[in-house]
Specification:
The protein has about 180 residues and is an alpha+beta fold. Helix content is about 55%, strand content about 10%. It has seven helices and four strands; from the N terminus they run H-E-H-H-H-H-E-E-E-H-H. Helix 5 crosses helix 6 and helix 5 runs parallel beside helix 7.
């Protein structure tokens, strides 16, 4: 039963992402960052993407985003001291009913929370992906064969009014990493 639900959930996520790319392609002037088409994590195609190790200033900036994570979670779930991704998913649901933060602040807080959890619990790091002239901050596996783009993926899922997506992205990425290790 659980695998049927997982397949159904991944299918729905894939449809949502496909719609997001279709929307982005017809409204390209609004989107400066373009990422590879995938459900949320994927194998890297070295011919189409360039991955760059981030420098000290970018690393400092990414580390400074933790304050936005804390501000976001404490605004909606003030009793939570050590938030999980599920807590951030709950806080996002509350945010939708009474928005104290801008959409951009939510994207940054949730993207940072996802990145923090991936780096803390999975063998990953922040890097920058460059496709053509555009770039994005990415969480990359240590062996460089799988990645997610937390800020961009979250923005797309917010645009399509998806809920519970942080845990889903993390779990899918974790499964991808495990399947890469078993090959």
């Amino acid at each position: 039963m659980q695998s049927y639900i997982t397949i159904l959930f991944l299918s729905l996520a894939n449809v949502a992402i496909t719609k997001a790319y279709s929307y982005m392609e017809t409204n390209q002037e609004r989107f400066k960052i373009q990422t590879p088409k995938s459900y949320l994590s994927q194998k890297v195609n070295p011919q189409s993407a360039k991955f760059i190790t981030i420098d000290g200033k970018e690393r400092e900036w990414l580390s400074s985003l933790y304050a936005q994570e804390v501000d976001f979670i404490s605004s909606y779930l003030p009793r939570i001291r050590i938030p999980t991704l599920h807590d951030f998913d709950l806080a996002y649901g509350i945010w939708k009913t009474g928005k104290k933060h801008s959409k951009q602040q939510v994207i940054i807080a949730l993207g940072s929370a996802l990145g923090t959890q991936c780096i803390k619990n999975l063998n990953t790091e922040w890097v920058k992906i460059v496709l053509g002239e555009e770039g994005d901050y990415t969480i990359m596996s240590a062996n460089r064969d799988a990645f997610i783009c937390p800020f961009t993926d979250i923005e797309k899922l917010i645009n399509f009014d998806t809920q519970g997506f942080l845990s889903m992205i993390y779990n899918n990425f974790d499964q991808d990493l495990k399947s890469q290790c078993s090959k």
